[in-house]
Every structure is written in structure tokens, then in C-alpha cells.
């Protein structure tokens, strides 16, 4: 009886373990563990590896578009320096979802930064300082950033700051001048295909022709987005994936519809173009997505003169801003389409 | 509003009123009023009513299981079934236009995961006491609808306090985590409706809480427009797009309902209702029920009754087109006020007004109408007094239209 119970318990644990494994986002599961494994950022990686040989790192500022490996690099450095156990004590990671107002900088961050370090553990370099990772630092207020500047100098002996952001211009000058800067660039298609194929192999997915291209196109160089999409599609549609399924999960509108919309605008048929636009909206596609794809198509199209394109694009920008302000989707989209129709119907004479 | 439908509403109101009268406080009363009103305008989706006494067809024929989604959203339902077949589900985000069946899908999904118990819901007026800071405590009252397995709230009702509510509810759910036993999923589901109306802060607050408590609590977010949901929140959910049903599909559903109610539905009327619905299933079913109340047996030539506020706006549009003068503007203003005090959302007024105005205009003027409507509606979102912006739009339209008329006849 006892044996049975034990067996059940083990089973249960095993089950829970499997579930936990399954639930883990692939982004974390397949996150590179070593700096040298980070793909495509060759210059950054080689510079970082050199710096790590000396075990003496400066304050660092990583910037670049989302999904290019900034957080991965920062975490990998910590792991390589301290190992999994000591890492918990020596590293503090704060991202935008944590409260990071000026009071937190003065309280939590300061108390972490000011404490001295303890003993290292064997097997890892364990340099005598702690690491504070401020992820998504461009969402910190200027006041909070200013409160950091003195701290970075005072405690530089015991704490190194890793500041991660998308836009270096949103980090105040005094902070960025105190850091070594690393720029992460957008991933190219080849690297992305390689990585996706690797994950697909690990998860037993069958990718049909065109899936990789769809992922590359939709994610636009954002590795995290690509992997998340892949996982979403796999959990929704099962292991056989196609380009269309990826597009469905990403909420991308079929190209034919956008093309038709543009053609109707060029033809000057305002009634039909309005109807089609409303139709796409009713299919549940977000308005911003329609505008984005419309703009994308517009730029490539040879149906229009450059000047007309420019005029429509100006309007697209304006409308985008209004949408972000919370304006009504239907009205804004109609407005946009009506402008496009007007612009197209008043063709400049040559 | 149609007589029969008003009767239904009034009837419901009194039954509900009696139920609530026992613990009548003013907030629940005003909420009730709002609720009854929401039936008239748009949102009958509250099971609230169905669980009490009688139900509108919209609630009566809502699919209970994912298997029952035959005509509408069938493929989405199939994928969802696949998704939850081993009893687990990620955070989900349902988005699509209103009346496309988001809520129905969510409810059906819940009963697929948890069994029929998920439909046994109770409605509560809950008060949360929350420590906002160490010195300040705030209290938030909110209507919740919950079963043993899920809680449904509309956090945007809490106004600027929404951020505290969201976090507090999730934490509370995490504390009382169900035991992972047979027939129990080991987590609860929190359904947040209208999450696109959540403030930015609340959404930021969500992202961390979502990750932290994901073992005990899964979120299902429902939004009309996914634009207003933060990218950070979106990327943590599995997005499910729910397209509005096409007219053909709506017709199939209407025939189904008619068959179940043992009514004979002439095809002409059916297609008329489907066109009238503008791809909104809820609107279609409500309209059908209104037709039933108005006149049965159905006549093929029977007209589909528009809601009274729509007629009212159509009238306003006609008045604006008939005369453009300060005097008329003043008259129209009174009517707009009338709409606003009856809780018709200003954006809806803009849309409908725009629709009825442009119906009678040529292409050139249509562009103008859309242009100004888009501009003033945007300003409305930035500002706070709806009447000013609507009036500004009307004044602008009158001026443009008059100028055009004069130049045409001059």
C-alpha cells in the first residue's frame, strides 16, 4: 500500500514536472546560456568575452531593438561569472513591471548597491562585485535616472550596473557617459532561420515551406517575437505549422485584401474601398495593423506617384497618433481611406 | 425602442428590482438601471439575467460547450478545444468587434475545461480593501460574477482605481488556490472583460502579476480593440482573433433559433435581419426577437425595427441637413443632450451621425463628414466634455455644407 502511494506521489511529481516543463515559455527554455552562444552580435560578443577574461567589467549600457539578445547577454554574463547559486545573491534584476520610481532607486536599489559582497564559490570566477540589471530602462523617469548617477560612482567598487534599453536617447547623458555602450543590431534572416529550425527540432515541429519566411517577415528581426509566435501557433494548431498559421496567430491581414484595398483607392471608388475597409475591421483585425500593412504595401506599389505616396503616408502617421490617443477605429480608418481616395483621384498632371 | 422590447426590459427591471430591494443600496440600484439600459443599447451578454428568471434569446441560445459552436467561430472553437484538451491553458486574449462571440467562446471554453459547474455562477457586489501605500487605504466596490472555477470582472468599472483591483483580485485568487485533485485543474481563471478600457497603469501592473501568479491563476482577457492593449501584455497571452460572423452565418443561426422556438421564419425576413445586423450576431438575435414580439406569424414584408436611439440620431441628421443655422444648432444641441443623459456613448453618436449624414450626401461631402468626425472624435478622447465636441462637429458640418450649397447655387 505504502509502495503504491509512493509510486503515485512520484508519478504526481513527475506529472507536475512535465507540466512545468511544458508551460515554460520557449523564449526562456532556449535562451542561450553563454555569451558566446548569442547569435549574430559578433562585435558585442567578442568585446564582452575579452572584458570577461579580465573579470573586471565596467558599467554597461546595452541598447538595440527588442528581441536582439540584450537581456540574454546580461543574464549569461551573470551566470558565467557567478554560477546558478551565488547568482541569486549577487544579481538583482529589475524590469519595467517592477516599481522603479525615485523612491525605489533611493531605497531598494541603494540598499542592494551599497552592501558589500561575501565569499565566492569555487568553480566560477566570482569577481568581488555585484551586478544590478535595469531592464527596459528607457521607461524609467528622468528623476529616477538622475538619482542613479551618483550611486553608480559611489558604489562602483562593489556594484556594476547593466542598463538595458531600446533607445539610448531616452537614457540621460550623465548615465550613458558612465557606461561602456554596446549596440545590438536587428537579426538577419539566416540567423533567425537557423535558430527557429533548432527549436522546431527540439519541440518536434514540422515546419512547412514558407513558415520560416512568414516568421521572419512578421517578426522583423525580433527573435523573441518569432519564438513566441512559434509557440503560440504550436499550442493552438498542433505541431504542423504553415506560413498561414503563423500569420493567423500574429494577426496579420492576408496580403490580397490589402492589395485590393489599395487598388480600390487608386481606382477612386470610395464606396467600395470604405466597405472593404470596414469588412477587414469587422474580421477582427486591429486598425493599426491595417494601417501598417497598408503603408507597407503603399511604399512598394508602383500604382502611385511618389508625391501621392508621401501625402498618404503623412496622413497614416497622423491617424496612428490619434489611434494611440484612443480615437475610434472605424472613424479613423474611414478617414484614412477617404484621404487616400482623394489623393489618388487628384492625379497630378504631367 | 420597440414596445415589446420595452416590455421585456421593464419586466426584467421589476423582477430584478424586487430581488435587490432587500439589500437595496443606491449603488446597486443605479447599477441595475445601467444594466437594464445596457440591454437596450448593446450589451445583453450578462448571464446575470439568465441566471435569475427568464432570458432573452441571446442568452438562451448561447452555446454552452465548444462543440455547440457550429455556424459561428467553428474553427476557432476547434482550435481552442485542441488547446485545452490536456486540461491546461495559457493566458488568453480574445479580441474582435462586438457581437462576434468572444464572450460566448470564453464561457464555452470554461465549461470545456471545468465541466458544467462553470455555468453555475453567482453575482456579488464585492468590496476590496487595498493598501495603496503604507498610509492610505482605499476601498473599491465592484460587481463580480463567479463560479467555483472562475471569476469574471469588468475592471474598468472601477475607474482610476482599476490598477489596484486587478492586482488584488489576482493575489486573492492565488492565495486560495484550489487543490490539484481529480477533476480540479489546480488553477482558477480570471476573466477580465473590456480590458482595452483598462488604464495604462493597470495594464503595466498586470504584466508582472501575470507572470508571478501564473501557476495559480490564468487570465482570459477580452477586448474590442487590441490596439489599446499594451504590447507587453499582448505578448504574454495567446491571441485569439474572433471575426464577426458573415451574413450567411447569421442567417443559419437565426434559422436554428427559429426552429428551436418552433417559429416559421420566412427567408426574406431572415436575410433582412441579417443585413440589418451589420455582422453583429447579438444585434441580429435581438432584432429577431423584437420582430417576434411585434408581429407573429412573421410577414415577409415586416420591417426590422431599429433601436430608438438610432432613429433619434437619424432624425437629428435629417434636421441638420434640412437647415443650417444657429437656431437649428441650438435645437439639435438639446437633442444631443437627451442622448447623452440616456448613456449613449459619444463615440457611438459620432459613428451613427456620420453614417446617417453621409447616406444622403455625394462623395465630396462624404469625405468632409468623415474628416471632421474623425477629427472631433479624436479631440473628444483627449477632452472630457462630450457635448462640446459633438456640437463642434455639427457646427463645422453645417458651415461646410452651407458654404457648398451657396457656391452650388450661386
UniProtKB/TrEMBL annotation, chain A:
Per the similarity annotation, which family is this?
A: Belongs to the activator 1 small subunits family.
Q: Report which superkingdom the organism of origin falls in.
A: Eukaryota
Name-wise, this protein is AAA+ ATPase domain-containing protein
AAA+ ATPase domain: from which residue to which, for each copy? 56-188
* Cellular component annotations (GO), alphabetically ordered: DNA replication factor C complex; nucleus
Gene Ontology BP, a term = DNA-templated DNA replication
Residue ranges for the region (Disordered) are 1-25
PANTHER family annotated for this entry?
Answer: REPLICATION FACTOR C / DNA POLYMERASE III GAMMA-TAU SUBUNIT, REPLICATION FACTOR C SUBUNIT 4
**What does the annotation say about its assembly with partners?**
Heterotetramer of subunits RFC2, RFC3, RFC4 and RFC5 that can form a complex with RFC1.
* One MF term in the entry's GO annotations: ATP binding
Which chain positions lie within coiled-coil regions? none
Among the Pfam families in the record, one is AAA
Q: Cite the entry's keywords alphabetically.
A: ATP-binding, DNA replication, Nucleotide-binding
UniProtKB/TrEMBL annotation, chain B:
- Location(s), subcellular: Nucleus
Q: Which domain of life is it from?
A: Eukaryota
Q: Does the keyword Membrane apply?
A: yes
Q: Boundaries of each AAA+ ATPase domain copy?
A: 88-248
Q: Which UniProt keywords apply?
A: DNA replication, Membrane, Nucleus, Transmembrane, Transmembrane helix
Q: Which SMART domains match?
A: AAA
Any single GO BP term: DNA repair
Output this protein's name: Replication factor C subunit 3
Instruction: Please name the source species.
Output: Bathycoccus prasinos
